[in-house]
User: Fold these one by one.
Assistant:
Number 1:
Amino acid sequence: MSTMQDPYASSRETTEGTVFSVTGGDWDSLVTEIGATKEERVVVNMGPQHPSTHGVLRLVLELEGETVTELRAGIGYLHTGIEKNAEYRSWTQGVTFVTRMDYLAPLFNETAYCLGVEKLLGITDDVPERASVIRVMMMEFNRISSHMVALGTGALELGALSPMIFCFREREKCLDVFEMVAGLRMNMAYVRPGGVAQDLPPNALSKIREVVKELRRDFKDNDSILIGNTIWMGRTAGVGYLDLAGCTTLGITGPVLRSTGMPWDLRKMQPYCGYEDYNFDVVTADTCDVYGRFLIRMNELEQSLRIIEQCVDKLEKLQGAPVMVADKKIAWPSQLALGGDGLGNSLEHIRDIMGESMESLIHHFKLVTEGFRVPAGQVYAAVESPRGELGVHLVSDGGTKPYRLHFREPSFNNLQSTSAMCEGSLIADVVAAVASIDPVMGGVDR
Amino acid sequence: MTKEKDLSVGHGLFGTSGTGDTSGFGGLVRSVAKPGSSERPYGGYFDDVADDLERAYPDFSDAIERVVVDRDELTLHVKREKIAEVALILRDKLLFEMCLGVSGVHYPNETGRELHVVYPLLSMTRNQRIRLEVSIPESDPHLPSLVEVWGGNNWNERETFDMFGIIFDGHPGLTRILMPDDWRGHPQRKDYPLGGIPVEYKGATVPPPNERRSYR
């Protein structure tokens, strides 16, 4: 509270006016105190630790009464230098780094990166079909789990608690699938250049079928709470307006772009990983507002389930097919095995390299320590992540490590639109608008 | 396709130096060249893009230094004085409505063209992608800003300034975005060290990643 003494940010007089420090407490006494000044214009610093800013995002709001006249977003609080770090690791190790960028959509980061590496290597067509289908299935589960966070925390920030409980219940089921398949619940480093780290465990497909059935049943809980709800509509309809022209000039993609009625989805327009072989619809809305984006995310859940079902059908037919390129100079030598404590070395492989074949040991050692060389050049590969176009710009100098790795993060680009969405609106709508963009600060700051 | 001059030259095999080289591999010299200019036909829709741009932009041959088609991607290398003109024509006449970011690359070996700026462009109307690339010297790292053309370049140019020290003239507020405001240096340049501290583990010392022996 303003009367409280904060050693780091005390209330004081500056040339710009009085600075108040608010850390919680009684709102009325603060309003009385601010009301004593003649100034109509108030500059509010929201974040970087504010619970409604989706992570460490800082918003500087200039207010006239309750109206936002200017909004500036401050980012960089979660910068980890992943792009620089990756220049010092092999191409395969890069997966482990990039999966930590947008931590709600790790499989999309991995897949985009691997598609880039494969394009540089010229082996895009050699990736086995089973690997592509597994990638698609995992990405669609990831889309559901990411949308669940977007919807759940978005509702929570607007004061609705129940959707969050339901969303995290559903998200849990997706994470269980990740754990079953990849051994980890997030940051799995499961997609590797040339394929995926390991094949599905036995009985995975029947479990996935069950999960899909449960998810489809349980999504109805959220539908019935939020869709058409008067309070929810009041907080979201007509809020955070951004039309198609605004989206194109600001480079906005994903649900925000589709909420303007533009059916732009890379899975349909520029298919990768064999998305052209699946039946699904691109969900759009024509309201350009928070409610439209919310509806798009809700309806994309069903489309993801449809794709997952088709994946399971395909995987049943591809039983026993390889999940890594045949080229042993690129394919990771050890076939990992899933143990009780996560992914680990396969005993069979250890027996082979340690006890039977010296050449296998040399090959394993060379590929793991040195990595493979990638011909010089640059590529741009993109996937449709839950937040929009996730692009990766990769440059190789012919070495065993990336020369330059740059991620075109949809969160980073979409977050720029907060000013356009919020200026002129009420301060309460800022939270709704930011939630509808669904920025993940790990991706924004990288 | 012709090859460009050496992008990087590597010496030795596993980065050893100062120790006795009994294998002889330490004397290896390995040079790598980037893909060079391409000749027509470029293939696919790339010829259409090049034709359309030539028709819409009379200075085409002057502004475009070279055209590279590599791995099914078209890259137009543009002179830096012309980048704003070319960008505006690509947006208005060729309908590349979206610029998907600004990525920098630092090639310390390319004297006079050390810093490269790469703009991936997307046309939703045409469902096509192209890439623009501009190279500028490290001693004069100025480039016209494209925020007027694609508003979304605002943060992207700030990031490229932050990471590479490229100054975008005409940018409405070119400040650091990811690093703290008082940070010194530009971390993504190749001469900027990764940093890191050696880690001691069971009596042995593991050097930081940029000092470990590796294939260079």
Number 2:
Amino acid sequence: MDCTPALRNRTPRRRLLALALAVVVALALTSACSSGTGASDDSGPLKVGILWPFNGAYSNYGPDGLAGTQLALQEAGMKVSGRTIELVKGSEDVLDPANTLREAKRLVQQEGVTIMIGPVFGSSQQAVAAYFKTTNVMAFVPFGNTKELAGRGNFIGWPTLDTSFSTPLGGYMADQLHYKSIATLAPDYVYGHNVLVGATQTFTQAGGKVVQQQWVPLGTTDLLPYASNLDRNADALVMWLVPQDAASFVKSFRSLGIKMPIIFVNGVFDPTFQSMGSDIVDSLGIVDWSAGLTNAANKTFAADFAKANKGQVPNNQNAAAYVDTKLALATIEKAGGSTSFEELKKAVTQVKLDTPYGPGHIDENFLGVTSRTIVKAVHQGSRYVWEPVKTFDNVPNEL
Amino acid sequence: MSKKRTTNDLPMESSSTTGAARTDGAASGGSSTATRGNPARRPRWKQPLATGVAAALLILLPLLLTPFHQDLATRIVILALLAMSLDLIYGYAGMISLGHAAFFGAGGYTVGMLMVDGGVTNFWVGMAVSVLVASVVAAIVGFVALRTRGIYFILVTFAMGQMIYSLAQQWDVLQTSGAEAVVGIAPPEVSPLVIQWTSLNMYYFTLVVAGVAALVLYLLVSSRYGLVLRGIRENQQRMSALGYNTWLYQYSAFIAAGAIAGVAGVLFAYYSGIMAPANVGIAQSGLIVLMIIIGGVGRLWGGVIGAVVVELAGFLADQYAPDHKNLVLGALFVVALVVLRAIAITGKKRASRRRSEEGAHVHA
Amino acid sequence: MLAVLNGISLGFVLFLIGSGLSLIIGSMGIINLAHGALYMVGAYVGWSVAMDAGLPFWLAIVCGALAAAAVGVLIHQVFFRHLSGLLDEQILVSFGVVYILADVVQWVWGTNAKAPFSVPGLDGSVNLLGLIYPTARVFIMAVGIVFGALLWWLQQRTRIGAIVRAGMDDPQMVRTMGIRLDLVAAGLFVIGSAVAGAAGVIGGLVMGAQPSFGIDIMLLALVVVVLGGVGSIPGALIGALIVGLSQAVSVVLFPSFSGFSLYVVMAVILVLRPAGISGRVVTQ
């Protein structure tokens, strides 16, 4: 090489220096962060962790969930059974579950968290499952509750098992709407498949026929092909897509001149619903929760939430985190303030709550049992809302 | 043809960097040419000392850490190995690959599938099969990518990496038990040893395996083979004029780098228990490139420094600025660039000027 | 038939992005992986103008193009101008800009993805050879054809185009003729950025705006460039149509591998024609 001897001689020392520097920096940083190696003793503040996505994909979920959890904690006066509660934030990585696992370990090992709200997404939950099993962590998780996670007690799945989400819809379509055949559309990942299972099973049992099932792979940018490939002979399309994809699909669907009714599993979430409302007015959907539900607990929740958040209307993430946190607090109360995992496990199945979703409890597989509501998209004042049409209480989980 | 040559015939020994005109855009940026040296030419006593200190730190440091930070250290060791494997082709052979995480993924997915679906918990079997699969994937990707070079090579590795990513994302076989990933991977049985897995054990196990793999890389780059690779990086035409089958050298290096990346992938699967498409995709590939550029391309240990910096930055961003992790990582890329330029401008004006003039366009 | 039309319309969106990228890479040797991020900026700005402010769509296109051009000027003047031929550095800048812009758009426009734009006049459908087809898609195809013709004319029939083409083949000679190739290159970079921004707004009609576009759209654009051959407008068009068609057709034929099959097509073409379809760049 043509570098000068002086330069070459310096290189090893520089390398040594650099290495030492890197190690020192690493040490300094790690020791700085390792201050809080709190174990889960019953004295001192109770650490509640919220492990939701705050960056990358679905980074709107984290702040939403945080707002819901904070409201529930404020209502309880930041205390449970006389113990102060401290909320610790962790970052779920929707795309890279290994990162989520690292954050979960940080919350548990470094921060001493025993009650976790989240993680939200299926892959994250699967990633932390094996680790949670070795700990005394109880995680209250919304959405993405698969049967693989049920029954361990480390995961409390509210509001329901995914595959039982749309159970009441099948019978409703066959009996009330007199549909003979349906087509379906959902993303090609586990939650997408699961969330339709209830509806297609019960619809088939009631004598209906599922004539076409389209699954949209992750990362698809253009949804028009799915609209043009749709079997137009079906009586209705039953679909669930993330909001912006749903909007994109409905637009393509309408502009191809297709007149088939669409039934939205889980509705379409705000704020996308507000911007596409005119396209889907009068469409039906089945939801676990929506801002338009008229039960008393939901009205209180909406009012309290608006008061705490500058008049904002709560969304699905707010509601899910709110109820998950409520459940966690009620469970600790039920266990007489104990946070021992075994006590909590016993207590959680005895909790009964009137939630914004409807009356609810946790079954023996640690899955939520609550209401599902058939809703209709209507224009109300300056907003679009999902107006309740028919409510099914205590929808069971079929494992 | 090349087999008959002896070391004396090698054109790279001392003078070619000064003399040779660059003929393609494939070699990487200007700053590091002078430091992509032959390790054997450094003063004798300093290198073992540095290595000894580093080794002592790697072995003793974890004893002072909490299990959580031991896990973090394990992760850094794995990614350091991954970065080093990329450096074999990126730094030494001048092949800028933006799809390297694909081979990491191939290794990790294979060992995961073997364990979760096939019940193979044996480390030796899992490692052997996974490295084989990673090599095969690298052989396929390399075959396509090496039909091109220069900027084109970068684009093609980028796209081919994404091909493996979309396979991981879309192929149902690569997804287990209710996740868009392979989950439930456990630490292996390392017969004849019986290991009770703890964070500390996992760290040392990872360190040993990664150390062996790194040693292989070191032997490769410091051998005659490594010298030829550097020769090809500097002047491919001259090397082929001298009778070397440059394609074969590049292709075999590409596969070797893929195999080592596969080893890192296996370790990652054992460590994290999960392999997801994100571990395979462009985001991961980009971060590895960042690692070796931060640490300095063309020197294996550069990957170690880069892995420490990048991983700690990501970890701290998650903890202290979760809402702006992208900004932190983006800033890290830009800071790395500024530092790189500053070094290049102060240290090697001449080399970088020559390079910028000759690399300024895609060659016909 | 519908699938083919779908493929063509997606192809034209990709052509708008890919052609700019192809020229930037081809004429300057700058591997600007942040090109997709410029598309994203255009899409978000377009959303603000057309949806938030309710202004005419052509204005949204202009604003999107200007915004992307402004960002393009910034990254070109601050970074790429000094990094000619330095590939490590170009890659660092690209990734840095992609990460930073993804953060910035979430900061400015919120974390929720934006739904496809609704624009009066482009919302409905038209009867195309007996097929009912969305007006927005027909509009995109028309824009793509006009734009492609314009670019081709610029490149093949004007002095600027001649300089650019000559610059790709023999920069030394062009420089000795006293032409400021760096100015030409800077101009091209800005034009390419503006086109990406405009494409973002136009593509927003069917895809909306998302922070992940910086990577997602970039990948598709990159495949377009790889397939078409660097620096060739007709090549980019053919590449874009291949990508669009293979995406749309595979939805019907191999629904669960629609992303993967695209890359397989790319790999096969590369093995047969390593320099892309246009074969402009001799690589062996």
